[in-house]
Amino acid sequence: MFGRSLPALLALLATACVAPQPPAPPASASVVQAAREVAAPAAEWTANCTDWDEWDKRAAPFRVHGDTYHVGTCGISALLVAGAEGHVLLDTGTRGGARVVLENIRLLGFRPENLAAVLTSHEHFDHVGGAWWVHQNSGAPILTSPQAEQVIKTGQDHPDDPQRGMHTPMRPVPAQYVSAITPGQPVTIAGLTFTPIATPGHTPGALSWQWESCEGTDCKTIVYADSLSPVSADGYRFSDRPNYVAAYRDGLSRLAALDCDILLTPHPSASRMRDKLVAGDLTAAPGCAEYAAAIEERLDRRLAEEAAQ
Predict the structure, then answer these.
(1) Which residues form the Metallo-beta-lactamase domain (predicted)?
(2) Is residue 18 part of a domain?
(3) Residue 44 belongs to some domain of the structure
(4) Does the residue 15 lie in any domain?
């Protein structure tokens, strides 16, 4: 009776009803400059967010330093580094939290379509579970560690993840949009340069990132250090995996040695971000060395507890 199949007719109707959309305006220096004036004061974030807050709780974006912004939720960090040639997002939050992240990017006057890349900390759903959604809304590729690459592509835990089996699988990002970087080798994206540092432990593919943001001649080195806590599924023993523990300690040593004016972490409270914002000084302690030392103490306690069992 019909000359066309129902799917073909629906596709034709959809095409007929939706006008072609113009491409998003490109990033520009004027938009980057305007965002500095649009960003909410950090006091708005501290007024609405508590330590170890809910992961998907909405929070206002604020400027960290220069053109680096916190665009995450109250409980999970996501950082935007803006540039005249394009922007870079570090982490996406959960699938639900990614909606807040994208809204915050827009509130600053930026367009998700101008994201040049998404960089990852560690390959768990609370930090990169929204990678698929962000990619769908921006087209941005995902840059991650060699160990985390298959996790992002498949949504499945790494076989060596201490928390393997604890989390619901993530929605995978199409493989052609996921690439592995080489830890230790700086990457330049849309004119912005970042150095990835291998800091395995919390997961096998965990990365920390270092870059510089400037306000005129006042330049600060910012480090987004991974969570690094020795948390695991029941029955997992770090002490049964000496090579993993050695890599864990090596990563902590690399982190401790970094130039690190401002320390930020995937869980804001892990680096006392709220306390620093209230005090008006994001350069306050802990810095990278103190943070790494505290994590190593936790690892040592965990190993001692395992030895006593």
Answers:
(1) 75-267
(2) no
(3) yes
(4) no
Q: pLDDT, tens digit, for every residue of 112-146?
A: 999 999 999 999 999 999 999 999 999 999 999 99
SS3 content of the chain, % helix, strand, coil (to 5): 35, 20, 45
Residues 77-97 pLDDT 10s: 999 999 999 999 999 999 999
Strands 207-215 and 218-224: antiparallel
User: Which residues in 36-158 belong to E strands, given as ranges?
Assistant: 62-65, 68-70, 79-81, 87-90, 115-119, 142-144
CATH number of residue 154's parent domain: 3.60.15.10
Residue 204 to residue 148: CA distance in whole angstroms: 7
Cβ contact 108:84 at 8 Å: no
User: What's the rounded mean pLDDT across residues 164-172?
Assistant: 96
Q: Could you tell me which residues come within 8 angstroms of residue 151 by beta carbon, excluding any fewer than 6 positions away?
A: 123, 157, 158, 170, 205
Rounded distance between C-alpha atoms, residue 89 and residue 111, angstroms? 12
Q: Which residue has the tokens 């520009």?
A: 28
Cis preceding linkage at 183, omega within 30: no
Task: Name the domain count of the chain.
Answer: 1
pLDDT for position 3: 45
Residue with tokens 């508590």: 50
Displacement of CA 306 from its chain's centroid (Å):
31
Q: What is the pTM of this model?
A: 0.93
Section 48-75 average pLDDT = 98
Residue 34 lies in a domain: yes
Tens-place pLDDT, residues 274-283: 999 999 999 9
Task: With beta carbons less than 8 A apart as the criterion, state whether 191 and 84 touch.
Answer: yes
Contact 92, 127 (CB under 8 A): yes
Domain of 288?
26-308
Which one, of 35, 38, 129, lies nearest residue 87 by Cα?
A: 35
Among 109, 87, 89, CA closest to 190: 87
- DSSP character at residue 40: B
